[in-house]
């Protein structure tokens, strides 16, 4: 069964069902996890044990809010009437990619969500639809409304016909992971609105601004980002591994196939997999 992490500060993963067991990692707020077994209020996932107190079941209302990499979009919609929520229709013809340009430590997606609710963002006014960092995605405005992110006026094509995504560049954050999370969001939005890859554009396209700055400053980085949006991993594809993962997922030996394909697992995950495969071979 699938659950969503409700602990704002994240959820510890432990080697056993209790706080006396060692921590081996954590899940981010909003992450979707598959629980395979439960014991005394603890749930076992493919990475270890977590407290069920900080999980809630995935509901129908969550459908469409989870990326193909298992990250849930946290809804933090600005109140109607906010000066930086102009309303007006948006046909979602384009997706515009920005970088926050805020290199301060802690300037993550949650911090930008708080910024958009504050007086300076409303006074500017400035707004966009989504902020993505290395562990979360926040949505600030409905896709079908306009926003003030492209700098091309209230009815310019950037503000009035595109969905604005800000990628965080905060110090200490993993920018490669943030871009991968943004690409997963782009894939979801492309599918939802029928947007083609050639309509995923830089902020630069609308006004000539040097944004997304880091990506623009790095040779090949934009092309690599678009390749990620098209579903190609930056590590290069590994069809042999992917076929094996798909076969194991089909036999219900593993959950979270995307994580296995991304080589994102711990020694304990492999241990659990070996136990499962042993039982499978024995016919249990
Ligand atoms: Zn920008």
TrEMBL record:
EC code(s) of this entry: 3.5.1.28
Catalysed reaction, written as an equation: Hydrolyzes the link between N-acetylmuramoyl residues and L-amino acid residues in certain cell-wall glycopeptides
Enzyme class: hydrolase
InterPro entries membership: Amidase/PGRP_sf, Amidase_domain, NAMLAA_amidase_2, SH3-like_bac-type
UniProt key word Signal: no
Pfam families: Amidase_2 (PF01510), SH3_3 (PF08239)
CDD domains listed in its UniProt record: PGRP
UniProt family annotation: Belongs to the N-acetylmuramoyl-L-alanine amidase 2 family.
Name the UniProt record assigns to this protein: N-acetylmuramoyl-L-alanine amidase
